[in-house]
Design brief:
Mean pLDDT of chain A: 96
Strand order of the largest sheet of chain B: 1-2
Largest sheet of chain A: 8 strands, mixed
Number of helices of chain A: 15
Structural class of chain B: mainly alpha
Number of domains of chain A: 1
Number of helices of chain B: 3
Strand content of chain A: 5-15%
CATH class of chain A: Alpha Beta
Shape of chain A: globular
Low-confidence stretches of chain B: none
Oligomer: heterodimer
Order of helices and strands of chain A: HHEHEHEHEHEEHEHEHHHHEHHEEH
Shape of chain B: flat
Strand content of chain B: under 5%
Low-confidence stretches of chain A: none
Radius of gyration of chain B: 23 Å
Strand order of the largest sheet of chain A: 4-6-5-10-11-9-7-8
Mean pLDDT of chain B: 93
Largest interface: A-B, 73 and 51 residues
Helix content of chain B: 25-40%
Number of strands of chain B: 2
Structural class of chain A: alpha/beta
Distance between the termini of chain A: 12 Å
CATH topology of one domain in chain B: Histone, subunit A
CATH topology of chain A: Amidase signature (AS) enzymes
Number of strands of chain A: 11
CATH architecture of one domain in chain B: Orthogonal Bundle
Largest sheet of chain B: 2 strands, antiparallel
CATH superfamily of chain A: Amidase signature (AS) domain
Order of helices and strands of chain B: HHHEE
CATH architecture of chain A: Alpha-Beta Complex
Radius of gyration of chain A: 21 Å
CATH class of one domain in chain B: Mainly Alpha
Helix content of chain A: 25-40%
């Protein structure tokens, strides 16, 4: 029996009926990782013993009737979430030797729900990148075409799920790092509202933008996982104290009477023709499902990339100042005074992109430049947020492409940071405004997956998942898999 | 405004980073491209706009100042390269 059942619901049914055990599902994932990951490089760490022990515990819970809908289902965590007693590298030489002293809220929440973690996935260093090429542990390959990038920064999570190595994985999204890789690998990628999921135990990149979420095949799977991840946590001072609804209960709500806004700025010259066609077809599908479509405008959308590349580096330069070689992480072997020790430690252990972002942040915050760069970026951030609020006065959600192109070739954009940054031109606005957004597979271009992005108002994850699920009931793009996976369903 | 190699030295010092002499040109070029990208913001009229520091309309939560953590010093110091008598060891600062 293969783990490649189409969704969690079917796996849970098979587990309860005794047709398969969690140990078998987990063992199958471990075997697939062993067989395929040398060509994908999607994992940094794999923990067979811990995974099988957790699977056995899940099998006991299932036998005793105390299992929930996620009990016994294998998954993987992006290597940015601390998991007690195991290393958390964030894709960096800086934390290559770091052993997490405690569990992040995301790890403990999913473990409490009975999910079985098999290991930690590869990622761009400190989540800074859109191609998974900045990882200290090497680039991840896209299972649809091994010459191409799976996107980033949650590229390992995306490749692992797309290739069928695990049924689901966690990710983090600061400017598109869940949605962009989901789009490029044909998955459903959910970035919740800022503050919906606790950031406790999640290595910080840009604290006013970072949010944890999921990479799954379907919206129904994402609904179940989000339910176990979301909720108030006093250990994260920005975690929202807002009740967590039953996201699965509203998946089948009708889309009759819903109004969907299409920002005209999403369909600019930068959007590849095949992606534009797939997204237009998806919008037509929503009309068939009963939604009303309306053109809206986000006049400041083009400024979201420039705003992001001030705000995110500024916050990163502050967050990453903690890496000094003293309390944890890498320390230089060279001798010198304290300042030399700090400088050499950081210079030897951070990669080029991380250094560029730290330096960009230091520059825009430095004396004489703060008002012109950082303060102006915060003001334009407000204008972008206002544009979105104005749209949401007229529509229930916003729809458009997730990325301007399908998966690009490895190496294609590494020499040009600005070209790489423009990959996130459609995803960043949701992070700046703290809004939830989801990417759903909606077609192909050049035989590669294309993602449709839905953006909602704060804490409207239920509506986003409902709209994504209804689309997935009417289409089968989310069930299409690359050859390497051996086929799903 | 393109950044010079001297600018790179200054910024690297602020960030406690060191850029190798042969890499300075590349850093200057790429950081200049990034600065050129973000300088587009200067053209936007933001008169009267209140800067947005945070996406949620919330105030900082406060809690009573009470002891909630147990002593885990030895456990937490296992991640440090060099400790002695529960202290973190660093190069000598005061002669």
């Amino acid at each position: 029996m293969s783990t490649l059942l189409p969704d969690f619901a079917e796996m849970a049914r098979a587990l309860r009926a005794g047709k398969v055990s969690s140990r078998e599902l987990t063992g199958d994932c471990l075997a697939r990782i062993k067989r395929h990951d040398s060509s994908l490089n999607s994992f940094i760490s794999v923990y067979p013993e811990q995974a099988l022990a957790a699977a056995d515990a899940a099998d006991k819970a299932i036998a005793s009737g105390s299992a929930g809908p996620l009990t016994g289902i294998p998954m993987a965590h992006k290597d940015i979430f601390c998991a007690e007693g195991t290393r958390t590298t964030v894709g960096s030489k800086m934390l290559d030797n770091f052993v997490s002293p405690y569990d992040s809220r995301v790890v403990s929440g999913l473990a409490a729900a009975g999910m079985v973690s098999v290991g930690k996935t590869n990622m761009d260093e400190f989540a800074m990148g859109s191609s998974n090429e900045t990882s200290y542990f090497g680039p991840v390959k896209n299972p649809w075409d091994l010459q191409r990038s799976p996107g980033g920064s949650s590229g390992g999570s995306a490749a692992a799920v797309a290739a069928g190595l695990v049924p689901a994985a966690t990710g983090t999204d600061t400017g598109g790092s869940i949605r962009q890789p989901a789009a490029l690998t044909g998955l459903t990628g959910l970035k919740p509202t800022y503050g919906r999921v606790s950031r406790y135990g999640m290595v910080a990149f840009a604290s006013s933008l970072d949010q944890a979420g999921t990479l799954t095949r379907s919206a129904a799977d994402a609904a179940l996982m989000l339910g176990a991840m979301a909720g108030f946590d006093e250990r994260d001072s920005t975690c929202a104290n807002v009740p967590v609804p039953d996201y699965s209960a509203t998946l089948n709500d009708s889309l009759q009477g819903k109004t969907i806004g299409v920002p005209k700025e999403f369909f600019d010259d930068g959007l590849e023709a095949g992606c534009a066609q797939a997204v237009q077809d998806a919008i037509a599908e929503y009309q068939k499902l009963g939604a009303t479509v309306k053109e809206v405008s986000l006049p400041n959308l083009a400024m979201s990339v420039p705003v992001y590349y001030i705000v995110a580096p500024a916050e990163c330069s502050s967050n990453l100042s903690r890496f000094d070689g003293v309390r944890f992480g890498y320390r230089t072997e060279s001798t010198g005074d304290l300042a030399d020790m700090y400088t050499r430690t950081r210079s030897e252990a951070f990669g080029a992109e991380v250094k560029r972002r730290i330096m960009t942040g230091a520059y825009v915050l430095s004396a004489g430049y703060y008002d012109a760069y950082y303060l102006q970026a915060q003001k334009v951030r407000q204008l972008i947020s206002d544009d979105l609020s104005r749209c949401f006065a007229e529509v229930d959600l916003i729809i458009g492409p997730t990325t301007p192109t399908p998966a690009f070739k490895l190496g294609e954009k590494m020499g040009d940071p600005v070209q790489m940054y423009l990959n996130d031109m459609y995803t960043i606005a949701a992070n700046l405004a703290g809004l939830p957004a989801i990417s759903v597979p909606c077609g192909t271009s050049q035989n590669l997956p294309v993602g449709l992005q839905l953006i909602g108002t704060q804490f409207a994850e239920g509506l986003l998942l409902n709209c994504a699920h209804q689309y997935q009931q009417a289409t089968d793009w989310h069930l299409r898999t690359p050859e390497i996976s051996g086929g799903v369903a | 405004m393109p950044l010079s190699k001297q600018d790179i030295d200054h910024i690297a010092r602020l960030a406690r980073l060191e850029v190798a002499p042969q890499e300075k040109g590349d850093y200057a070029e790429k950081l200049s491209q990034i600065i050129e990208l973000v300088e587009q913001l200067g053209a936007i009229d933001t008169t009267g706009v209140v800067p947005m520091a945070h996406p949620l309309d919330m105030v900082q939560r406060l809690r009573p100042d009470s002891v909630t953590e147990t002593d885990q010093r030895d456990y937490l110091q296992q991640n440090a390269r060099d400790t002695e008598n529960a202290l973190y060891i660093v190069p000598k600062v005061i002669e």
